Amino acid sequence: MKPANNHGIKRIIRATGFSMKGLKAAWTHEAAFRQELILAIIMLPIALIVDVTSIEKLFLILTLFIVIIVELLNSAIEAVVDRVGDEIHVLSGQAKDIASAAVFMSLVLCGLSWFIILAGRYL
């Protein structure tokens, strides 16, 4: 049931709380999220200190965030599919596989972007 006064600053505060709860759940229950977040935390300072243009720095950072965002969506899809039932169903597997493919594509985008930008500068 929705709260009666769910507008303005109260809504923003509640939404932020739900977001933090979601990040905590992802950290607690999803090994892939932990791995990708740790990698992003390591790579973020590198993106800030490499000798590339501001736009290239922004692109390096954006690709890190894209990986994290897509992994969060993948985890949400997996949780919903698992909640629906324990039986094996072709569509459940398809949903999980497609979400996993989205994570893979975001990792490919990130890796290619980092390679192209840094190779262009340092090789």
UniProtKB/TrEMBL annotation:
It is a multi-pass membrane protein. Coiled coil: none annotated. Its cofactor is Mg(2+). Its EC number is 2.7.1.107. GO terms for molecular function: kinase activity. Its main location: membrane. It holds the Pfam family DAGK_prokar. It is found in: Cell inner membrane. It is an enzyme of class 2 (transferase). The chain crosses the membrane at residues 32-51, 58-77, 97-119. It catalyses: a 1,2-diacyl-sn-glycerol + ATP = a 1,2-diacyl-sn-glycero-3-phosphate + ADP + H(+). It comes from the Bacteria. PANTHER family: DIACYLGLYCEROL KINASE. Catalyzes the ATP-dependent phosphorylation of sn-l,2-diacylglycerol (DAG) to phosphatidic acid. Involved in the recycling of diacylglycerol produced as a by-product during membrane-derived oligosaccharide (MDO) biosynthesis. This is Diacylglycerol kinase. It comes from Shewanella eurypsychrophilus.
